[in-house]
Amino acid sequence: QGTASGIVNMGGFIASMTTLLAVGVLLDATGDNYRVAFASVFVLEAFGVAQILRLRRRAALREREHHVVSRVEAVHVPA
Description:
2 helices, 82% helix
């Protein structure tokens, strides 16, 4: 669980740094055209949402397989 939290936190920080870099590069390249520069934010957000949906499906399948394998019937053992 700690590894998953670390990956999620790092993903957020990396995404924000990438977005800041993309906006800065596009502002320099387009001569301070803020519409184009901030459009990159939506492109990166769309990429993030696509990855969430892709990985969510994969995680759900893995969880279902794990749940089926780990079913164990309770056995009463007299004392």
